Amino acid sequence: MALAHPERRGTSSLNIGEVLAALAEEFPSMTASKIRFLEEKGLISPQRTPAGYRQYGEGDVERLRFVLALQRDQYLPLKVIKDYLDAIDRGERPENVPGGLTLAPRAVNDDVAAELGGNRARSLSEEQLRAESGASATLVETLVSYGLIASENGRFDEHALQVARACVQLESHGIEPRHLGPFRAAAEREFGLVERAVAPVASRRDEASRARTAETAREISDLCLTLHRALVHGRISRMEG
């Protein structure tokens, strides 16, 4: 996907309603408030008329489509996406984001695309969960019983898939679900910390505030995970000495 620099947009001029229409098929839940929120975060910079009205070019629409696809498909924080776009705007061609993840939106088959349904969260049956994670029926049952994953009406989300994949790999190192209670407890404590931090914004019910709350929560969570990783890796590094 070509990502035009803000100063090298196409010549067409669209208002915010026309931008929403252009994105509607792939992102049916997109709203004007979310577009303004992404502008506030520096992901797009629409031109302004002398009267102050926003004018969007084709480059703005492509950048929006790119940002939304990465959020939906790879759960990347806006800061990571913005850093990548800023590098593109400087004429650089970075291939990866920090941590080695590829920024290209994840390729999915037709069945998965149907499940995604635009902006809707992915939903998997237990059979799909086992097939994609490599987990046995017994492992899935055990993960549910320990509260490490949960289903809603017999369906599992993408996070459950990530947990199952990790637990399959941990089993190969002799670490079983019964050993993982502290991870669940730590996750609940971390969520409580994040929830308290975003409470002042979370009380507002408008679309832009909800988007800002979710993004701030992700940023805080990423910082917590970075801290956790650094502390654990610091302990591991002492094993080498």
Automatic annotation (TrEMBL):
SUPFAM superfamilies: Putative DNA-binding domain
HTH merR-type domain span: 35-87
Keyword terms of this UniProt record: DNA-binding
The keyword DNA-binding appears for this protein: yes
Entries under InterPro entries matching the protein: DNA-bd_dom_put_sf (IPR009061), MerR-type_HTH_dom (IPR000551), MerR_fam (IPR047057)
Protein name: MerR family transcriptional regulator
